[in-house]
Amino acid sequence: MPTDTQPNNDKTGVTTNTESCGSGLQLSEFGLIGRYFNRASQHKGLIKGVGDDCAVINIEPHMQLLMTVDTLVEGVHFSPDVQPDDLGYKALAVSLSDLAACGAEPRYATLAITLPQVDHDWLQMFSSGLFELAGQYNVDLIGGDTTRGPLTVTIQASGVAPHGQALLRNGAREGDLIYVTGQIGDAGLALQSNLNQLNYNDVTIHKRLNRPEPRVQAGLELRQLASACIDVSDGLLADLAHILKSSQVGAGIELSRLDLSESVRRYQEHTGRLDFAVTAGDDYELCFTVPPEHQNEIDKLSRQWPFHCSLIGAIDHSDTLTVLNNGDPLEIRHQGFQHFS
Amino acid sequence: MPTDTQPNNDKTGVTTNTESCGSGLQLSEFGLIGRYFNRASQHKGLIKGVGDDCAVINIEPHMQLLMTVDTLVEGVHFSPDVQPDDLGYKALAVSLSDLAACGAEPRYATLAITLPQVDHDWLQMFSSGLFELAGQYNVDLIGGDTTRGPLTVTIQASGVAPHGQALLRNGAREGDLIYVTGQIGDAGLALQSNLNQLNYNDVTIHKRLNRPEPRVQAGLELRQLASACIDVSDGLLADLAHILKSSQVGAGIELSRLDLSESVRRYQEHTGRLDFAVTAGDDYELCFTVPPEHQNEIDKLSRQWPFHCSLIGAIDHSDTLTVLNNGDPLEIRHQGFQHFS
Predict the structure, then answer these.
(1) Is the Cβ of B56 closer than 8 Å to some Cβ of chain A?
(2) Nearest 10 degrees: CA dihedral of A205, A207, A210, A212?
(3) Distance from first CA to last CA of chain B, Å, rounded?
(4) I need a surface site. Which of A104, B14, B165, B314 has the fewest CB within 10 A?
């Protein structure tokens, strides 16, 4: 049942201090957005940020606007014992990863956060993690809504790309090469490790789960080279399948070409789950396709990236995704996650 | 503790059907966004809506982009027995009300919805309510994220206004007249009535709680007349105080000038709570200030509106908000809501 409070919003623009307003009226506003999430703007296009009913933004005429939204729910996407700064970082990272997949330059974000109660230390840490990443990619937090309820964080991120240059899922064509950035499976293994108390003292995999690095720079550099791109959040096979469906093509990939961390490699060998890395998800790497004439440019580009980039297969004219491991067809046990099942 | 599922997202662009992908791989995606929330676009500026990592949008060069975000949480902002179509309608209405307050023409919305389980009848009704209002104001749903967890609905709405014409809170000047659209207090009374089982068989007040009408058209028409504007979501006094603080001015208002419904008037007289209507909130009317030279234009305009518009006071050079009722200073019992208190 609802409490008899009025709607419990702390919208952008809410005054932050208790203020005397005559007639004995004291306006006590919590002002969490103003207190924890109002920082100086990085972009001259931001005309009005936190502090009104809406943010007001100028977009350069040659730019298109790109938007994405992601929600993280306690107990589903993160454990109740998550570090608040890691949560703030990751909540923004997953949205920046979507912008990266589209080749967008990140600009703005709004934050809708639902909290069971106000814990100032928690909010301080959460915002510091969020702004650590926001600062890295010049993202302005331009508005938000704080509400009371079970812990849930929704971030909508906006970015820009020159007209017609956004990377979409539907551009893959027969003969295009399929690449994946970085190492996949680490975040999934860290999650397994947390859940099953496996003994993986590999701090890297836990960092990959808690603080994924959105591949923003790679996305920008791929803009005029890749024919299609997606970020690997649901698991490589599931996400590549999205490209295939959108592009109405098929593909064949060879898993032995993937760059896997030593921990993931050991886990797969130990458990026999050779499909673990490609179905685990939460990687926030980019999977993209490239016309063969751009292969040299990709080789050159990716040598400058601080992470590996693997050529794992090619688009074909079939309507299926064929998955091989050292030449043998791979039996897929886990098909990415199931929604609400 | 988290379940051992992988992150449970149904992002924009997720494929909607079970799809055979070779090697025995079945990709079963729930595709709730695709199934319930993917409709034809109203705007030629929408290049890519639901169906990719990001939506892609063109904004006309002479337009500024306006954005707002609002969350509704079950048990806080709405009762568990809310009608799903009313909830879908209201979730969008509260965001369109923010756009209205800024004089923006609504264009796009994203939906982040967290659901305890999939109930197709519920989703069908929720989406029908949402699209009923979206259709009325030509709003395209351009993306979303469905997650599992306690019922929470976050909508970010975007609109446009010609450069420099957005209505903000900070433009009120000494001598400006203060107006409020429509009748306030109805939604608050309906909420009281639900909670305390008061006998208010006035269907209008319940409709005002469940299906507030965002004053979009009024906001557009006020663009070159009003000096400041806000929507009344926290209660008239609290929201007017936001204008005063942003504009660094004071004001005096006379409550007897407000247009109140017969039910609210009776409730206030019966209970002696003469500040009920101005503190109840959830009204989604507009409170705006107008330089006196535009008074005639406002009179003319508002005669065409299908709701009353009340001139309730004026901006002054004080730093307080003076509230009178029939000339007597009003004692304010309830100061709008308190956050997390």
Answers:
(1) yes
(2) -90
(3) 27
(4) B165
In the predicted structure, residue A258 carries a pLDDT above the cut 60: yes
For residues B104 and B120, what is the distance between their CA atoms, to the nearest angstrom? Answer: 34
DSSP structure string for A54-73: SEEE---TTEEEEEEEEEEE
Contact between B314 and B177 under an 8 Å Cβ cutoff? The reply is: yes
Q: Which residue has the tokens 């589209």?
A: A102
DSSP run (H or E) holding A316:
strand A309-316
Contacts of A164 (CB under 8 A, 6+ apart): A64
Predicted confidence at residue B338, as pLDDT, reads: 36
Query: What phi and psi values does residue A172 have, to the nearest 5 degrees?
Result: -70, 135
Give the whole-angstrom CA distance, residue A318 versus residue A291: 17
Q: What is the pLDDT of residue A197?
A: 65
pLDDT at A195: 75
B296: contact with A, CB 8 A cutoff: no
pLDDT digits (tens, 9 = 90+) for A67-81: 999 999 999 899 999
Per the CB < 8 A criterion, the answer to whether A311 and A299 are in contact is no
Q: Which residues of A touch B144 (CB under 8 A)?
A: 69
Q: How many CB atoms lie within 10 A of CB A45?
A: 18
- Choose the mutation target among A184, A339, A341 for the interface with B, i.e. most B CBs under 10 Å: A339
Query: Considering only CA atoms, which of A141, A143, A161, A140 is closest in space to residue A42?
Result: A140
Q: What is the pLDDT of residue B209?
A: 95
Statement: residue A12 has pLDDT above 80: no
Can you give the pLDDT at residue A40? 84
Distance from CA of B143 to the nearest CA of A (A): 7
Highest mean pLDDT among B9-13, B119-123, B130-134: B130-134
Report helix, strand or coil for A286.
strand
Q: Exposed e or buried b for every residue in A56-85, given b needs 16+ CB within 10 A?
A: bbbbeeebbbbbbbbbbbbebbbeeebbbb
ipTM of the complex: 0.87
Q: How many CB pairs under 8 A join A and B?
A: 411
Q: What are phi and psi of A162, to 5 degrees?
A: -55, 150
Shortest CA distance to A341 belongs to which of B108, B28, B305, B69?
B28
Which among A21, A114, A243 is the top mutation candidate for probing chain B, defined by the most B β-carbons within 10 Å of its own β-carbon?
A21
User: Which uninterrupted H or E stretch holds B329?
Assistant: strand B328-329
User: How far, in Å, CA of A7 to CA of A39, rounded?
Assistant: 26
Residue B279: how many CA atoms within 13 Å on its side-chain side? 21
